[in-house]
Amino acid sequence: MMNETEKMRAARHELEFLSASDPAAYANMVRYVVAYSKLLTGAMPDQVGSKSPVVMAGFRLAGGDEALLAKAVRNERRDCIYIAFDVDDAQGAPAAMGIFRREGDQIICYGCCKVWSPVQGHALLVPTVGDDAVGYFAFRRSGPPRWVDGQVPGSFGAGLLRTQTRLQDLLDEARRAEVHLRGDATVYSSERGELVGRPLKRAA
What we know:
Strands 5, 6, 7, 8 and 9 form a 5-stranded antiparallel beta sheet that branches. This protein is an alpha+beta fold. Helices cover 34% and strands 30% of the residues. The protein is built from 4 helices and 11 strands.
C-alpha cells in the first residue's frame, strides 16, 4: 500500500470533517455514543466516573491516527472506547469498535470488538480474533474496565442478539431525546504528528 503523504492525509481529514458536519451523520454518531455508553456502563457519557472509559466516535483510523489516539489516552489517563464509522456512510451503523487501554506503561489497542449482553446487567466488550473471543472487558459506572480471561457467561450468539435489540431501543430513546442537540463536539485530526481539534457546529 502506498504511504500516505501529508497532502493525502489533509485531504482525508477534510473529507472526514465534511462527513461529520452533515447534520444527519452528526446526529447518528452522537446517538451511538450515548447508546453504547448506556449499554456498557448504564450511564450517559457525562455521568460516568472520571475513571470510567470515555466513548468516542470517529472514522476508521489510518495514517498513524491510531498512535496519536493512544498518545491522547496516555496523556488523559483514561481508557477510550472508539466507535469507527465509514466516512462514506456516517449515517449508518459503525463499521468497527475497539478499546484503547492503559496496561502498565503501555497503551494497548484491542480492535475487532463485539458487544455481548447478558440477560441482566451491563453489556461486556469482547475482543475477537477471527470468530473466537479471547476474553472480555466488564464495565462499571465509576471505575476502569476489568479484564476477564475466558468465555462470556452464556451463549455468545444469544448475547449478540440481545445487544442488537437493546442497542436499537437505546438508539430510539436517544433519537426521541434529541441528544445530538446537547453540548458541542470537536473533530480531531493529526497535523505534523500532533492531534489538532476543530470545533464542529452541532446539528440543528
